[in-house]
Amino acid sequence: MKKLNAVLLALVSVGMTSAAMAQQTQKQPGEFYVGARFGALNLDSDRVGYKNGELYNVDTGFDTLDTGVEIGFMLTQYWETRIYYDYVEASIEGSPGDLYGQSFGSDFLYHFNDLVYAGLGINGTEVGDLSDAMVRATVGHRQFINDQLSWRVEGGVQQGWELDHTESFVNFGLQLWFGEPATVAPKTRPQVEPQQAQPEPQPEPQQPVDSDGDGVVDSNDKCVNTPKNYSVDETGCVMYENEVIREELLVEFDLNSSKVRESAMGAIEEMANFMKEHPQLSITIHGHTDSTGEADYNQWLSERRAKSVGDVLIKRFGIAANRVDYKGHGESQPKVVENSATDRQENRRIEAELKVVNRVPVKR
Q1: I want to staple 111 with a disulfide (CB 3.0 to 4.6 A). Which of 117, 142, 159, 330 is the partner?
Q2: DSSP designation for 361
Q3: Cα-trace Rg, the chain
Q4: Per-residue pLDDT tens for 303-346?
Q5: Rounded distance, CA 99 to CA 52, Å?
Q6: What does 250-295 look like in DSSP terms, one character per residue?
Q7: How far, in Å, CA of 111 to CA of 84, rounded?
Q8: Do domains 11-178 and 243-361 have the same CATH topology?
Q9: Secondary structure percentages of the chain, helix, strand, coil, to 5
């Protein structure tokens, strides 16, 4: 048992040291995972169980191992639910051999940010044919190795209401993710109905006639039936000019955070719709920070912010990844001179701009 506990602690240590190579991935509603669990229980000192018809006390102090599986589902961007089943192996106090059992239950988890979550659940824990129904509180930390694989470590307490056991636990898990995030249908912009051509009036005999009323008589008019509200040249053809259409994106961030605020999703969606209307365009997202902190850290943080917005365009609003690029500028390009907390907030941002040039008719 002690050797197995040492292996478990080594696994947790390896997972924690891999944090430097992990990336943060913001999971969306509709994605789910299956995972493996490895943990240890500190059973209540009053916990007993049967073996071969005899009653034994169990060891305390995290000498009980539990291994199992879990299935989880993202209800929203912040709420997650899961069910789990563990096989339990407990040492007998003062005697060789083990007591066996199981632990199963479900949790609701709330994610405070990309790394930390907490939750409540119900649980049934059985050791040596004696079980207790329990309420469990959990605090955990999750890191993503890539978009499909994550690891987590967590701990907490559970309280029984049948046998009044109070117990604590730690465990480590690996999770494999599946499914597509829920998407929001893009807004459609109103379509402008083409103006119907006016019927050509019959000219009066021996009088100059301007059939379409554009100011150019029919004998000199090379473009008939031009709309009356458009300007024309000396040949009666519509005059055109270049019109620049711009779409700008500005998203601000919390201090030391690269997590996209939910309040910014509307502005990002409008940029996504503009890109869908103009599939020839690609976007470069520029990330910035305020002057707080070291320059190297701010450069890294600005790149993370730009990538976070790019991931929302790709994963939530369906923009092709080869049309989205990002670049971090750290603290080198402030929007305003920082003299207050409000100024620093304005500098914690990403910016992007797209424009197209259309030829449009000149109106009178």
Answers
A1: 117
A2: E
A3: 33
A4: 999 999 999 999 999 999 999 999 999 999 999 998 899 999 99
A5: 10
A6: EEE--TT--PPPGGGHHHHHHHHHHHHH-TT--EEEEEE--S-S-H
A7: 19
A8: no
A9: 20, 40, 40
In contact, 309 and 317? CB cutoff 8 Å? no
Q: Domain 243-361, what fold? A: 60s Ribosomal Protein L30; Chain: A; (3.30.1330)
Q: What is the pTM for the complete model shown?
A: 0.46
Nearest Cα to Cα of residue 265 among 256, 257, 275, 273: 273
Q: For the chain, give every domain's residue range.
A: 11-178, 243-361
Chain CA centroid to CA 320, Å = 17
Query: Other C-beta atoms within 10 Å of 107: how many?
Result: 24
Instruction: Give the rounded distance of the alpha carbon of 283 from its chain centre.
Output: 20
The pLDDT-based confidence of 354 (bands split at 50, 70, 90) is confident
Query: Could you tell me the two tokens for 100?
Result: 């066996």
Topology of 11-178 in CATH? Porin (2.40.160)
**What pLDDT is recorded for position 192?**
64
pLDDT band of residue 299 (cuts 50, 70, 90) is very high
**Integer Cα distance of 117 and 107 in angstroms:** 12
